[in-house]
Amino acid sequence: SQKIEQNSEALNIQEGKTATLTCNYTNYSPAYLQWYRQDPGRGPVFLLLIRENEKEKRKERLKVTFDTTLKQSLFHITASQPADSATYLCALDIGQAGTALIFGKGTTLSVSS
Amino acid sequence: GAVVSQHPSRVICKSGTSVKIECRSLDFQATTMFWYRQFPKQSLMLMATSNEGSKATYEQGVEKDKFLINHASLTLSTLTVTSAHPEDSSFYICSANRGRTYNEQFFGPGTRLTVL
Questions:
Q1: How far, in Å, CA of A11 to CA of A99, rounded?
Q2: Best label site of A21, A28, B6, B38, fewest CB within 10 Å?
Q3: Cα A99 to chain centroid, rounded
Q4: Best residue in A32, A87, A101, A108 to probe B by mutation, most B CBs within 10 Å?
Q5: Residue (of B98, B89, B64) closest to B79 by Cα position
Q6: C-alpha distances in Å from residue A111, one per residue of A8, A43, A47, A78, A83
Q7: CA–CA separation, A13 and A18 (whole Å)
Q8: Residue B87: what pLDDT?
């Protein structure tokens, strides 16, 4: 079965630095990879999506890459701020409407000032 | 747009009672809704897929008689935890599928269930 791993449970960085989070998956490449932010006691909030035929996607200070050879996606937050502190989840999406996403455990990012 | 609400946000109940959690898509119609459960520091685990007008599809290991799902309309799905026990205490999250250009899913804010 498809598995998804987010290598770091926790990541601590200084304000202003770039945070890089890793998501690896096994077996087949999904049609999309989605990234979400989850704050404590709240539901996930969609951030970015990248398609399997895209190498990179950007949105403001966020950047996502997708390497189907390595079966890996990297999520970058540049010029990080304390407000970026949260848990970030990656999710596999086979691209069919009405199918569930498969989530990783998440990486909890702490940005200190 | 694309807001999903859940009610209640928190519930505390006694062991043996039943609890109903509602999930509503406020500004779009969702033919499919999903129910997840999340334990502390763990991933979201899919419990069931709920399609409007038909029976829910449960994931392996999820008791369908214990977690009753009803998707009565295109904007409402309910999860009822029957005869709740302390081990059912968890964070329950629903998502609704809009499914336009990709598998768009919008998540509710979650319901914290504590069973005493």
A1: 31
A2: A28
A3: 19
A4: A101
A5: B64
A6: 15, 21, 18, 12, 8
A7: 8
A8: 95
Strand B76-81 versus strand B67-73 pairing type: antiparallel
Residue reference for tokens 């690896």: A24
Alpha-carbon distances, residue B35 vs A55, B68, B69, B111 (angstroms): 31, 11, 9, 11
Helix, strand, coil share (%) of chain B residues, nearest 5: 5, 50, 45
- Residues in chain B within 8 Å Cβ distance of A105: 41-43
Task: Tell me the per-residue pLDDT of B48-105, one tens digit each, with 9 for 90 and over.
Answer: 999 888 889 999 999 999 999 998 888 999 999 999 999 999 999 999 988 666 677 8
Scanning the structure block, which residue is given the tokens 């994931």? B59
Candidates B91, B54, B87, B84; CA nearest to B69 is: B54
pLDDT at B24: 96
Q: For A61-81, write each residue's pLDDT tens digit.
A: 999 999 988 999 999 999 999
**Cβ–Cβ under 8 Å, residues B111 and B40:** no
With CA atoms as reference, report the closest residue to B85 among B70, B109, B69, B63. Answer: B63
Question: Phi and psi dihedrals of A84, rounded to 5?
Answer: -80, -10
Nearest CA in chain B to A37: B107
CA A93, CA A27: separation in Å to the nearest integer?
13
Q: Which residue of B has its CA nearest to A46?
A: B106
